[in-house]
Amino acid sequence: MDESVNSKELRKLNPVRIILPAVLGLGIIVILFYRDYNKIDFNLLNFTLLSGLFLFFAVLMVVFRDLGYILRIRILSSGELTWIQCLKIVFLWEFGSAITPSAIGGTALATIFLWKEGLSIGKSTSIVLSTSFLDELYFSLMFPFMFIIFSKTELFNTFEKGSIYNNLFLFAISGYSLKLLWTLLVGYSLFINPKFFAEFVKKLFKLRFLKKWKNQAEKMAIDFEIANKELKSKSLLFWVKSFSATFISWTGRYFVLNFIFVALILSTNSVSGDFLEVKEHLMIFARQLIMWIMMIVLPSPGGSGFVETIFAGYMADFVPIAGFSIVAALIWRLLTYYPYLIIGSIIAPTWISKNLRKNIKK
């Protein structure tokens, strides 16, 4: 990989970039909070040991999410990366996802993270594509499954039928279509024709404005093809374990909000027996899945702004007291988004100093 490209991509990790998503996300929450402030009766909040326990379970789900990612990278690297390296890569990857548009998701940087931790550029690319395939396979399977359990009206009934209702549904379908297409293309390259992606890269870098990286791209394509053949030869058990780690990660990510809602309802002394039914928890899960899929077609870093805006209306059904959906949104983002901005801004400078500045000196 050309060092100038490497340096350009690494500069995207500049901690200064955390300002935009942080301000955008928190700004939306402040505006919504100010708008609904008069509707919120904070005297109803009464945190107890039981509600605190469910908040702990929410934090535990965040831990499961990260453990699943760490385990998956360890499996896909065939043990070449240590557990510490996998942990570092996960946090850098999440940081990259938090400061780049959702459609990109930090994947452009992920290849560099893996490469700089000692893997070949071809194997790094292959692992990134494998993780992408496993992630999108999860969505490709779970999205239609949610529509089997719930009707379109149930999934979008927070909004009145009209332009907003229809636009959100179209957002979801568009995002799902893109994910499904990507799943099929990457799956074809990984399991049927390892040469497919390699040949695509070679042809792409024959374009005039990319020709100066042609030699490096061809070397990467050859390494990628070799790594892909290695992955293709892996046993069914290898892929079952990889997908299981993916399932743990995404399911843990989504159940964070379930536990937050339970904690908030317990804290307001307004527990509804119906809410604690399995179907209600599945509905929360399904709506998060849909929100995440809609984020794929939006340009904001980490979905900032969109998530906070849509959350208040989309999840209001599960908070029986007016205005408290904003409180739930703030707690949710504080647990699942902002920690990665903070951790990444701590790790990134040291990592960049090792991998960027020495390249600049060269």
- How much strand? under 5%
Low-pLDDT runs of 5+ residues are: none
Binned, the helix content reads over 70%
Oligomer: single chain
Instruction: Let me know the average pLDDT.
Output: 75
Main sheet: strands, sense, barrel: none
What are the secondary-structure elements, in order, as H or E? HHHHHHHHHHHHHHHH
How many angstroms separate the termini? 15 Å
Tell me, briefly, the overall form.
globular
**Overall number of strands:** 0
- What structural class do the secondary elements suggest? mainly alpha
What value does the Rg take, in angstroms?
A: 22 Å
Overview of the structural elements:
The chain is globular. Helix 6 packs across helix 8 and helix 9 runs antiparallel to helix 10. The longest helix is centred in the last third of the chain and has 32 residues, at 236-267. With 362 residues, it is mainly alpha-helical. 74% of the residues lie in helices and 0% in strands. It has one domain. It has helices at 3-10, 19-36, 49-76, 83-98, 107-116, 121-149, 152-156, 163-191, 195-204, 214-232, 236-267, 278-295, 306-314, 324-336, 338-355, 357-361. It contains 16 helices and no strands.
